[in-house]
Design goal:
The complex is a heterotrimer of chains A (264), B (361) and C (287).
Chain A: H1 8-32, H2 49-56, H3 58-91, H4 97-105, H5 112-126, H6 132-157, H7 160-168, H8 173-202, H9 205-210, H10 218-228, H11 233-263
Chain B: E1 9-20, E2 23-34, E3 38-42, H1 49-57, E4 64-69, E5 72-73, E6 84-87, H2 99-109, H3 114-127, H4 143-155, E7 161-165, H5 173-190, E8 193-198, H6 201-207, E9 210-215, E10 218-223, H7 225-230, H8 235-240, E11 245-251, E12 257-259, E13 262-264, E14 273-279, E15 285-286, E16 298-310, E17 313-320, E18 323-330, E19 343-348, E20 354-357
Parallel strand pairs in B: 3-8, 3-9, 6-7, 7-8
Antiparallel strand pairs in B: 1-2, 1-4, 4-5, 9-10, 11-12, 11-14, 12-13, 14-20, 15-19, 16-17, 16-19, 17-18
Chain C: H1 2-5, H2 9-13, H3 15-42, E1 46-47, E2 53-54, H4 60-67, H5 69-102, H6 105-116, H7 123-134, H8 139-147, H9 158-181, H10 186-194, H11 199-228, H12 231-237, H13 244-254, H14 258-286
Antiparallel strand pairs in C: 1-2
Helix pairs in contact in C: 3-14, 5-9, 5-11, 7-9, 7-12, 9-11, 9-12, 10-11, 11-14, 13-14
The chains are: A mainly alpha (264), B alpha+beta (361), C mainly alpha (287).
Bound molecules: adenosine-5'-triphosphate (ATP) and magnesium ion (MG).
Chain lengths: 264, 361, 287
């Protein structure tokens, strides 16, 4: 392995590139404790004033709760809809199955700017603009493909013999599904749920087309805020968002760790 | 199709055929298993053992034919109504339930009350000596322990038939020996009819009442271990079960068998033409040893070309014309030593000379 | 056959299966297929001033688009800038991917998490981070000034968009490259070195060719994402950077000219198709 001793120039290069990659995310944390009135780095003095301002900003708080409930509803619906769909698509062979699977995951390939516009035009005629139902539906269009993919992979790698064993022990198909298939799928469900939650919570482009003064999500509010003025308030919000994301990832990591234990 | 069944018959496969797509895996299979016996399916990889087992359990659907259990045609019966216990090669224990819950599952499906299910599961675990591990999860058990849980889970529902698909193939040699004895004892105790899939001939011969030797989806021979070993129905069976010497020979129009450059005697009669002559190594003896009184219908001269001690056996390689014949003799002290290059005479009886048609040329 | 056998009879008849697929099929049809078809239709409809459309067939949108130098330049700029960003992303991502490929154990896991974590952070947040870094009196400009060089303006022009977008696309590129590096057996490299190749020759003759499929995939992915990126150009361009995606948004929301926005969207999809075609052509050449 002599040859793979990484040389010092290479190490420095990789370090610099990593710094570039992580700079905007890392910068947000010190910036959120800025005491300055305007965006300035490094700040002239430290304070928690922007966190206070954030929690006093009723529009941001409202948007946060909208985002949270939206993401929760979308996640729950995604799982409820995608688990049976993934089950049928992995356990049943039928003509055009692959085609259907590709069709169901195709929304992932479409640029969100195009999808957002396309949904805007259709929703306008349905009267779904700036409504919670409209947002839920639009988010489902993008979260379902993720959920379907993750769950289909989990299901197709699941040991089929357990389902068969349950059948030979006298379990009817529905019983097998709820008592064997779904419990064994738990790690996949947790991963899919976390992914759906993050995608829905962070979604901004499609949502921008569908929100209005009546209803808005946190990413859209942040976008509007930055578009108009870039003060450290957004840094405080961003720091909290990153921590929330980390929390969700940790939930997944634990669930997936559990999953690995299952395989053994 | 009329369904009839002999008095002691328990499971019958009748003209079963299986195709996957347009591949005909099992052309036509007939088989009859008696009540309380343990039958082994023995055969090379891909010959259709697992498929046949899954057909019985209902996990695969035959494209034709009938499965009859206890006089009742169950071909169209859904899996969960079949009352057939199965032990999977991978054990297929439910990873999210502990050992006790795994064993109780089948009882719950039969609406056995909670307390009774617990008790019966407890007894089943006692039977396989795992009571102390009842609250462990399957992943916290060793391979042999998982195997026993799978066995208890299949037996606790008191199925009419027990199917085992290579249940010992994932265990190490020592554990395998132990489990063989245990499984056989449990089967005989409960008097359950069992079908045991294996490609290990020792397992099939030592554990089971009868052996089905399969090849390419059909039955080559169905008989007791002794029958299969001593009187193989085909050259394939003779080759597959136990080791054997193979000589090319022919039977003349006068009915005389010749092989290894001379005339041989055989108890079996085959139509004139090219034949294969098979003799098991331990049925051949070196003639002219002191105190050797065994009679030999066939005597063949050869030269010792190799010699190996295998514990209480000596294995000789003997060159006879173009053929190399392997001879196995028990090690005996008073024997006149035989070395490489010595001329010897091999002898064996007509009964041990198995002749099968074919063999080329 | 065995799959069907483990399912109940009514499933084999497909009724229950259809029922279980119905919700996702409906959402797909109403939220994806219908809107996209509708988009194609709109690109041949006439727009009314102040929003709405007239349901008449017309080539005007397409004709207008293809004859207007502003839009031709817009398309040309978008494609060109996206290509440049893609190449830059490749150059800055390759060393990280190679380093990651060669590292092992928990160090590798840690670095992989570092690469993925920006992916899970909102584009708004990361763009905001870049604004903080690149503003006129921010750390970068100050540093350049401190060295005594003339202060560049990095915000509200294409430079800022370039820097920010490159960083935002890096994780995608790194992951695609690493997937492609699976083919790169360290022993091949060692063999080349023991045969007397210098490190740079080993790289050019052995490593690079073996990793070309990963490079092609990463480039396709980043190009596609760059062409359709919207948040970063909008926030960092300060209204002075015009690209396809931002124009679609402006036409849809500000001007309310939905037919034109639709036409531009279809144009984006055509550019996608071209990129995909180029990608498969490259792959075929590689085989
Ligand atoms: N689902 C399937 N689709 C297509 N062919 C199959 C399927 N299952 C089994 N086969 C084929 O049927 C034949 C018999 O398979 P089977 O699993 O019964 O063999 P086996 O005797 O159990 O072999 P082994 O000892 O390797 O387990 C094989 O040729 C196999 O390739
Ligand atoms: Mg098998």
């Amino acid at each position: 392995m002599e040859i793979h001793k990484t040389t010092w120039p290479m190490r420095i290069l990789v370090f610099v590139l990593f710094a570039y990659l992580l700079a905007p995310v890392l910068l947000v944390f010190p910036l959120s404790f800025s005491g300055d009135q305007v965006l300035r780095f490094p700040p002239t003095f430290w304070s928690t004033r922007w966190y206070e301002a954030l929690f006093a900003n009723s529009q941001m708080l409202k948007a946060f709760w909208t985002s949270l409930s939206l993401a929760a509803i979308v996640t729950a619906l995604s799982i409820v809809i995608a688990v049976p769909a993934a089950y049928v698509m992995t356990r049943l062979k039928f003509l055009g199955r692959d085609l259907l699977f590709n069709l169901f995951t195709a929304p992932l390939l479409l640029p969100t700017i195009v999808l957002g516009l396309a949904i805007l035009i259709v929703f306008a005629s349905f009267g779904l603009l700036a409504t919670m139902q409209g947002l839920v539906f639009a988010h489902l269009v993008v979260t379902l493909p993720y959920a379907l993919r993750v769950l289909a992979v989990s299901l197709s790698t699941q040991d089929r013999a357990c389902e068969e064993a349950a059948r030979t022990l006298g379990a009817k198909p529905l019983t097998v599904f709820f008592r064997v298939t779904v419990p064994m799928l738990t790690p996949g469900i947790v991963a899919a749920a976390a992914l759906c939650f993050l995608v829905s919570f962070d979604e901004v482009v499609i949502t921008l087309f569908l929100t209005g003064p009546r209803i808005s999500t946190l990413p859209v509010e942040l976008y509007n805020y930055v578009y108009n003025q870039a003060d450290p308030l957004v840094a405080a919000a961003s720091a909290l968002l990153i921590l929330l994301t980390l929390g969700v990832i940790m939930v997944v990591e634990r669930a997936m760790g559990l999953g690995k234990a299952f395989v053994k | 199709m009329p369904v009839s069944s002999a008095p002691e018959e328990h499971l019958r496969l009748q003209n079963i055929g299986v195709s996957f797509g347009n591949v005909n895996v099992i052309p036509s299979l007939d088989l009859s298993v008696r009540k309380g016996e343990m039958v082994a399916f023995l055969g090379p990889s891909g010959c259709g053992k697992t498929t046949t087992l899954r057909i019985i359990a209902g996990l695969n659907t035959p494209s034709r034919g009938h499965i009859v259990v206890g006089g009742r045609d169950i071909t169209r019966l859904p899996i969960h109504d079949r009352d057939i216990g199965m032990v999977f090669q991978s054990y297929a224990l439910f990873p999210h339930m502990n050992v006790s819950r795994n064993v109780q599952f089948g009882l719950q499906m039969r609406n056995v009350s909670g307390r009774e299910a617990e008790e019966r599961a407890g007894r089943a675990l006692e039977m396989v000596q795992l009571s102390h591990l009842a609250h462990r999860k399957p992943k916290e058990l060793s391979g042999g322990q998982q195997q026993r849980v799978a066995l208890a889970r299949a037996l606790v529902i008191q199925p009419s038939i027990l199917l085992l698909d290579e249940p010992l193939s994932n265990l190490d040699a020592k554990l395998r020996d132990e489990m063989r004895v245990q499984i056989r004892a449990l089967q005989q105790e409960s008097g359950i009819t069992a079908v045991f899939v294996t490609h290990d001939q020792v397992e099939a011969l030592s554990m089971c009442d009868r052996v089905v030797v399969m090849r390419n989806g059909h039955v080559e021979q169905f008989g007791t271990p002794t029958e299969v070993y001593e009187r193989p129905a085909t050259a394939f069976v003779a080759n597959f079960v136990g080791r054997t010497n193979k000589l090319k020979g022919k039977i003349g129009s006068d009915g005389v068998l010749s092989a290894a450059g001379q005339q041989l005697h055989s108890a079996t009669t085959v139509a004139p033409g090219a034949v294969e002559v098979l003799v098991r190594p331990h049925r051949i003896h070196l003639q002219g040893q002191a105190g050797d009184t065994r009679e030999a219908d066939n005597k063949v001269k050869g030269t010792v070309s190799g010699l190996t001690f295998v514990g209480d056996l000596v294995q000789y390689g003997v060159r006879v014309g173009d053929d190399e014949i392997v001879v196995e003799e028990a090690t005996r002290r008073e024997r006149r030593p035989v070395g490489v290059g010595d001329s010897v005479v091999l002898g064996w009886s007509a009964e041990d000379t198995l002749v099968y048609p074919g063999g080329g040329q | 056959m065995s799959a069907a056998a483990t399912l109940p009879r009514q499933w084999r008849n497909g009724e229950l299966a259809v029922m279980l697929l119905l919700p996702i099929a409906l959402i797909n049809a109403i939220g994806f297929i219908l809107p996209v078809l509708n988009l194609a239709r709109y690109s041949f409809n006439k727009s009314r001033i102040g929003g709405g459309i007239e349901n008449v067939f017309t080539w005007d949108n397409w004709a207008g688009l293809l004859s207007d130098p502003f839009y031709l330049e817009l398309v040309f700029n978008s494609v060109w800038i996206s290509l440049a960003i893609t190449l830059t992303t490749l150059v800055v991502s390759y060393p990280i991917a190679l380093y990651l490929h060669r590292s092992t154990g928990s160090w590798r896991t840690f670095l992989t998490v570092l690469v993925i974590s920006p992916l899970l952070t909102s584009a708004v947040v990361r763009t905001y981070g870049w604004i903080a870094i690149l503003v006129d009196d921010g750390p970068v400009v100050s540093a350049i000034k401190a060295v005594g060089l003339p202060a560049p303006s990095l915000m509200f022009n294409i430079k800022g968009v370039f820097i920010g977008l490159t960083e935002i696309l890096m994780p995608y590129m790194i992951l695609a490259l690493m997937a492609g590096f699976g083919r790169l057996d360290p022993r091949v490299e060692e063999a080349a070195r023991t045969l007397g190749a210098t490190p740079s020759r080993t790289f050019l003759k052995v490593i690079l060719p073996l990793t070309l499929p990963g490079i092609a995939l990463g480039c396709l992915l980043c190009f596609v994402l760059a062409v359709s990126s919207f948040i970063t150009p909008k926030l960092m361009g300060g209204g002075r950077v015009f690209l396809l995606a931002t124009e679609i948004y402006d036409q849809a929301i500000v001007t309310l000219n939905w037919p034109l926005a639709s036409t531009l969207s279809i144009l984006v999809l055509i550019v996608f198709g071209a990129a995909l075609w180029a990608y498969s052509a490259v792959l075929r050449r590689l085989d």
